[in-house]
Amino acid sequence: MTSRIVAAVLALITAALASMAIPLGLLTAAQDRRDFRADTLASAQSTANLAEEGIGDGSSDPLLSRAIRDLGRRGDWAGVYDATGHEVAGTGPALLPTAALHAALRAAAPRSYPAARRLTVTVPIRADGGHHIIGTVVLSRSTATLTHRIVVLWALIGVVSLAGLLAAAVIAVGLARWASRPITTLADAARRLGDGDLETRAVIRSGPPEVRRLAAAFSTMAARLQALIHGHQAMVADVSHQVRTPLAALRLRLDLLAQDCDEATAAELAGAQEEIGRLTRLVNGLLTVARAEHSTATPARIAANAVAADRAAAWRPAAEERSVTLAIVSPDPVTVQAVDGHLEQILDNLLANALEAVPPGGTITLTVKATAALARLTVADTGRGMTAAQQQAAFRRFATGSPGGTGLGLAIVDRLVTANGGTVSLSDTPGGGLTVTIELPLSPDRARPRRPADLNQS
């Protein structure tokens, strides 16, 4: 932002200076040239006035000779010619070619002959101020002083313009920093808040008033968000304690009743135990979804291929017990940016769902690979699959196709993946079945990645 503001201000100042300095320089240079020509013509006319009497009576005028010498000392070349083209007085070399000289003798008005480094003018000499031309004065003056003056003029304009640009650059940099520094601070605060630092506040005491008001509103929002999340986390902890404890006590009492009852009553108690188990899984799933939706943990670098291998090894005994082949494909190391422990929960839910859906003799394939900017994990099974309508509703709470399922497995996966900045999608496995594709952001390679969480903690 700073560079863009500086570039915009400098472009504006450059355009303004150019629109003023260049026309000013051109006009001043043109005026200097006109003044130089007028001064040269005035000197030639003065010489012509002195030469009028001398050419008229054929005598030598000492004033004319002195004027010619004065012009020569100034560096001018001057010559006085009669009507026949004969030089009456002069400083030396011929100033004009013969043809040009005769044309000047016939001209009724002064003429100019600009050259690369000199300006030559001719002024007719008239008898007694009348219309009869009796000669001409040729004066050639060096344009070195004019050129020097114009060069100095453009140099002065250039120096002033450069000084103006430098001053504008200093002011633009200060203005840009004054305007962009609080925005950068606010952006950093928003990033830290998004990464889970709920203590973040945007303290900005300088910059535009609008940005300061925005920072104050951000800090108020962050404080309220912190209060809401802490309140929700406290509620989740209370629900976890208040609900799980009665369920555990109820299961224990049913176990005690089942020990001293007849077969019919034991069957009823077993059904009740199954419902309690389903209720326990439902409560645990809801708590997991709530934690995923309000996750504020800081992401870390996770070795995705190591986590996948660890979870595949943990679920392989269950797969073998059901005669299901669980394979993993992970050709290269892949490191993702995710909250520690979330990837384990994601894979556990996906593998559990796949094992429920795959019949004996089926296959589950877990693949981990990296693309250009993302890590892609897929769990493909050869089970019963899902219809298009079921796939569309699969990530909603309580959407399940299994009679004993809670409908929270894919909902948990969706919330956890989203909380880590990734995406999850469903598709049909070629040949039948369901494929779940997860894409997570890759992590930079500067730090050492964390190893997968311990199985007992997952």
Topology:
Blueprint: H1 2-57, H2 62-73, E1 77-82, E2 87-90, H3 98-106, E3 111-114, E4 118-126, E5 133-142, H4 144-194, H5 209-259, H6 263-293, E6 300-303, H7 304-321, E7 325-329, E8 335-338, H8 342-357, E9 363-370, E10 374-381, H9 388-393, H10 409-419, E11 423-428, E12 434-441
Helix pairs in contact: 1-2, 1-4, 4-5, 5-6, 6-10, 7-8, 8-10
How would you sum up this structure in a few lines?
Helices cover 57% and strands 17% of the residues. It has helices at residues 2-57, 62-73, 98-106, 144-194, 209-259, 263-293, 304-321, 342-357, 388-393, 409-419; strands at residues 77-82, 87-90, 111-114, 118-126, 133-142, 300-303, 325-329, 335-338, 363-370, 374-381, 423-428, 434-441. Residues 446-451 and 453-458 have low confidence and may be disordered.
Written account of the structure:
Helix 8 (342-357) packs antiparallel against helix 10. This protein folds into three domains: 2-149, Beta-Lactamase; 211-293, Orthogonal Bundle (Helix Hairpins), CATH 1.10.287.130; 300-457, Histidine kinase-like ATPase, C-terminal domain (Heat Shock Protein 90), CATH 3.30.565.10. A hairpin with a 3-residue loop joins strand 9 (363-370) and strand 10. The protein is an alpha+beta fold and 458 residues long. The chain is built from ten helices and twelve strands. Helix content is 57%, strand content 17%. The strands form three sheets. It has a five-stranded antiparallel beta sheet with strand order 2-1-5-4-3, sandwiched between helices. Residues 446-451 and 453-458 have low confidence and may be disordered. The chain has helices spanning 2-57, 62-73, 98-106, 144-194, 209-259, 263-293, 304-321, 342-357, 388-393, 409-419; strands at residues 77-82, 87-90, 111-114, 118-126, 133-142, 300-303, 325-329, 335-338, 363-370, 374-381, 423-428, 434-441.
